[in-house]
Write a structure and sequence with these properties.
Rossmann fold; alpha/beta; 6-stranded mixed β-sheet; elongated
């Protein structure tokens, strides 16, 4: 049982909770209500801080320490992992599932290597292993143990002195003490020995001598059959003796210098193989469960169609969500607190049910899953639901939360975008909301990211043709703030330069020659040189997220003391950064651009957020609102706004607010293109595009597509 007592931070102030371990716990509530703050700000950060306590004093001093959780008492907290569904690793599907190394070792250790020149089997052999193979291959026949050398006069004389008198050159057996020896390649005869168990030790000794003379190579030839077998210390071909450089465990992007096959597959073919295919083939080959586990988990979650070598950045949003859960399940850990942020994002109804089943399997492994989600499938498997509403926490079941989006009336479209697709032509109306729907993995993301967006952004030929002079001059793809998590809210609103200019105009600054750039945190000047304007010093424990310590020089204020001497309307810049958007909108009234941007942010529901907060602190719905605030200022018929799964979070309050903002954008002539699985968002569309597997997209008015 996790016991939380005496929470002090807003919006958790006054919250006392008991969260049972060993089940799925659903945290429900609009962004900023407290659900995300509890998961990320309390449970995860406090778990990391406690982990840091096991380090030495020097390590803690070097790395800094995570800020304490904003609670008076927190008991029973297990080790935690926070998974937001965004795969930032630059690797392929097999690498994320930790399969690449296992497959590489399997192919090397149990596969069959073939020479690319003669197709002979390749292997490396110790002297003992070589003796066993000779006995097995020659079955009692007398064998010559040979050491290949490049013979010259000096080496011939040295061999005579060492007592090696027999050699083979040009297919003939010669003696160094009486025959004329031609210069060039030759093979020194170390011994002639019967290939049977009684002479095993003699074979081993002769093999060692051969390798000492020929840099690790040894050749065995049947005295009667003439058959030859190369058994070298380095990895080499048994038929032609060709040696290959030492090979580490290959990854899917590397090609070994020899042909490597296992279970009927060449290593080079494996990259294109699908997870389900590989799992079935390896199961039939009797591979250990440790390798089959990740494959079976991924297949059970509906990811069996993914190729092993597919880069994770090319996956759809839903596929990334499920792949992260498959990775969690494949770890096989016990006693972990898994914290999932909106795992149903980008998933259709069947995929959401597979997600819920996967969460149950994670709990059955002996873990606890805390999920920030509002989907029906996740709520259905939750043992406990904690719902934030109007500053209070309601424990127990809250039922399925269905938003009601406001009705809209959109005039008939007069501008159209015609799309020339490989499977046919179709068109999209502009100045309204177009929604793209379809099953998870059907190709929606590929359609809009590889066809629509490149054509629109290039504004030339290709797969798109513009009909009716639509006049789109700017395409805004929302949802990119997660790529810049450290930028501050006022940076994203675009008002920092204007605010810096206000301070540079004050006499305290102009007398010192301080330009507006001097007050910007992105540049040296007035910012604290120790923390570079971040207010904290950061380190990395190697767990995927930084830990931080308040800067001891500026004490978190971000600026030098001389910068804080300049005030505008009674506040310095450090105090401006602490203002909430609602307070800043009043404080900055009358300032061109600044007041307008703050009013847009206020209208988008960000009034409770501080100007100095980073995007890392915002929930997905709030990030979207921040981007929409910028779009609200630019709204007009020349703009096209693209949103991928804006239902992230799925709370009715967030979705209703989103519907209102999108409706306002359309009313001003902005074209909106949405990819979603959410039925209410799809129901609010003016035009639907349905993407089906193996079929051309179907496009038409809402209700007819």
């Amino acid at each position: 049982m996790i016991q939380i007592r005496g929470a002090t931070a807003t919006p958790l102030q006054g919250v006392d909770l008991d969260l049972p371990l060993g089940q799925v716990i659903c945290l429900s509530g609009a962004d900023g209500s407290g659900a995300r703050e509890l998961a990320q700000g309390v449970l995860y950060r406090e778990s990391r801080r406690r982990y840091a306590q096991v380090l030495s004093a020097f390590e803690r001093e070097t790395l800094g320490g995570e800020r304490p959780a904003a609670v008076g008492e927190l008991n029973g907290l297990p080790p935690a992992l926070y998974l937001d569904g965004v795969l930032r690793q630059r690797q392929c599907v097999a690498g994320l599932l930790q399969l690449e190394g296992l497959l590489g070792r399997l192919w090397l250790e149990q596969g069959q290597a073939r020479c690319p020149v003669c197709a002979g089997r390749c292997a490396a052999a110790t002297p003992e292993a070589a003796a066993e193979q000779v006995i097995a291959e020659f079955g009692g026949e007398a064998c010559l143990v040979l050491a290949p050398v490049d013979l010259g006069k000096a080496l011939a004389e040295e061999l005579r002195r060492a007592g090696f008198l027999r050699l083979r050159a040009e297919g003939r057996l010669l003696r160094l003490d009486r025959d004329e020896i031609p210069p060039g390649p030759a093979e020194v005869v170390l011994d002639r020995v019967e290939a049977d168990a009684a002479h095993r030790s003699r074979l081993v000794e002769a093999c060692r001598q051969a390798r000492a003379l020929s840099r690790g190579r040894s050749l065995f030839a049947g005295a009667r059959s003439g058959r030859q077998l190369w058994l070298n210390q380095p990895f080499s071909c048994r038929d032609c003796g060709r040696c290959f450089p030492a090979v580490a465990v290959p990854d899917l992007d590397s090609t070994p210098p020899f042909h490597l096959a296992y279970a009927g597959w060449e290593w080079g073919e494996l990259r294109a193989m699908e997870l389900g295919q590989v799992g079935d083939r390896l199961a039939a080959a009797g591979v250990e469960d440790g390798m089959l586990g990740p494959l079976s988990e991924a297949t059970a979650l509906g990811l069996g169609h993914l190729p092993l070598g597919r880069p994770v950045e090319q996956l759809s949003t839903g596929e990334q969500q499920l792949l992260q859960l498959a990775w969690s399940l494949s770890l096989g850990l016990t006693g972990i607190l898994y914290l999932f942020e909106n795992p149903s994002r980008g998933l259709d109804a069947p995929a959401q049910r597979r997600l819920a089943a996967g969460l149950n399997r994670l709990v059955e492994q002996g873990n606890t899953a805390v999920v920030l989600d509002h989907s029906e499938a996740v709520l259905g498997v939750a043992g406990l639901v904690c719902h934030w509403e109007e500053g209070r926490v309601h424990m127990g079941e809250v039922g399925v939360l269905t938003p009601t989006l406001p009705p809209r009336q959109t005039p008939p479209a007069t501008r159209w975008l015609q799309v020339a697709h490989p499977d046919g032509e179709w068109r999209l109306p502009l100045g309204c909301m177009v929604v793209m729907v379809g099953l998870t993995g059907a190709g929606k993301t590929a359609l809009w990211s590889q066809v629509l967006l490149p054509g629109l952004q290039a504004r030339r030929g290709g797969a798109l043709r513009l009909v009716g002079r639509p006049g789109i001059q700017r395409v805004a793809v929302l949802g990119r703030l997660r790529e810049e998590p450290e930028r501050l809210l006022l940076d994203h609103l675009g008002i920092f330069p204007s605010l810096a200019a206000q301070y540079a105009e004050r006499s305290a600054a102009s007398n010192q020659g301080y330009a507006p750039e001097w007050f910007m945190l992105s540049r040296p000047g007035g910012r604290c040189p120790t923390c570079e304007g971040k207010g904290a010093l950061a380190g990395d424990l190697g767990l995927g997220e930084e830990i931080s310590l308040v800067c001891p020089v500026c004490e978190g204020r971000r600026y030098r003391p001389e910068a804080l001497e300049t005030t505008w309307r009674g506040l310095n810049l450090a105090q401006i950064l602490e203002l909430r958007v609602a307070e800043a909108a009043h404080h900055c009234r009358g300032v061109p651009q600044v007041g307008e941007a703050l009013q847009a942010a206020l209208a988008c529901g960000l009034g409770h957020r501080r100007l100095g907060e980073s995007a890392r602190r915002l929930g997905p719905a709030e990030i979207l609102r921040l981007e929409l605030a910028a779009q609200r200022r630019r709204a007009g018929p020349r703009e096209l706004v693209v949103l991928e799964h804006p239902e992230a979070g799925g709370h009715p309050g967030d979705l209703r607010h989103l519907g209102e903002i999108l409706g306002e954008l359309c009313a001003r002539g902005t074209s909106v293109l949405v990819e979603t699985h959410h039925p209410q968002l799809a129901g609010a569309a003016d035009w639907l595009v349905e993407v089906c597997v193996g079929q051309p997209p179907r496009s038409g008015p809402a209700g007819a597509a």
